[in-house]
Specification:
three-stranded antiparallel sheet, globular, binds 2'-O-acetyl adenosine-5-diphosphoribose
């Protein structure tokens, strides 16, 4: 089967082999930090220093980690496919872009950007952000991480549902299937069309039974093989 329009949903598992912590595995971020203390608008209102520190720590890690074979395989797929290949990522790291992927939608935001709550401007950001850091545009001290917190609407949802409607294969990589709306994308794909659906994950996800095909193991091992198979047929 030839694929001309591929949509890939990625989660924390794709960056695990790069040394970026996932959320819900043993040693995951939600074991050492409480979601309600660092990843909600209420948390930021209550303790902005703690929340900035959490994202400053994660942003500071970015230059110390490298894209792995799974990121590189997806970049090759986009480069060599005779068609369209879009990554929808829940990840806030920049490893897809650094591997060479160009068509990447960050539905949960990006560590390498910051947003001003006063003037709404968005800025590329590599350094720590403090509560007193002035906005480069309006100079007010009203910056927040450009991250979607629990209780907030993910970004680009209209574009994403358009992609889910039109794809001919949907591949989910390294996500536990616990967080909506992303966890519901496979059902949307099945409801909206006839696309093939593939799960690539270390272990069966919460939604594993919804996929037509499942490949369980490390993304860094499985994705280069899957990409080879797709490109061979292309
Ligand atoms: P999770 O930590 O919930 O799930 C990561 C998944 O990756 C698990 O199912 C692991 O088994 C799998 N995994 C681990 N290592 C892997 C590897 N080497 N290869 C393949 N799979 C591997 O992370 P997400 O599903 O991405 O949201 O979490 C979704 C959202 O929940 C995140 O975007 C974040 C979090 O709370 C917000 O902060 C809004």
């Amino acid at each position: 089967m030839q694929y001309r329009n591929i949509v890939i949903l990625t989660g924390a598992g794709i960056s695990a082999e790069s040394g970026v912590a996932t959320f819900r595995d043993n040693g995951g971020l939600w074991e050492s930090h409480r979601i309600e203390e660092v990843a909600t608008p209420e948390a930021f209102a209550a303790d902005p220093i703690l929340v900035h520190n959490f994202y400053n720590m994660r942003r500071a890690q970015l230059p110390t980690v490298q894209p792995n074979d799974a990121h590189k395989a997806l970049a090759r797929l986009e480069r060599e496919l005779n068609g369209k290949c879009t990554i929808i990522t829940q990840n806030v790291d920049n490893l897809h872009e650094r591997a060479g992927s160009e068509s990447v939608i960050h539905m949960h935001g990006e560590l390498s950007k910051i947003r001003c709550e006063a003037c709404k401007s968005i800025h590329l950001w590599e350094i720590d952000c403090l509560t007193e850091t002035p906005c480069p545009n309006c100079e007010q001290a009203a910056l927040r991480p450009h991250i979607v917190w629990f209780g907030e609407m993910p970004f680009y949802m209209d574009d994403i549902y358009g992609l889910l409607r039109s794809c001919d294969v949907f591949i989910s990589v390294g996500t536990s299937g616990n967080v909506y709306p992303a966890a519901g994308f496979v059902s949307e794909v099945r409801r909206l069309g006839n696309a093939h659906t593939v799960e690539v994950n270390l272990e069966p996800s919460e939604g594993t039974s919804l996929f037509a095909e499942c490949r369980h193991g490390k993304a860094g091992d499985l994705l280069p093989k899957l990409v080879d198979e797709i490109l061979r047929l292309n």
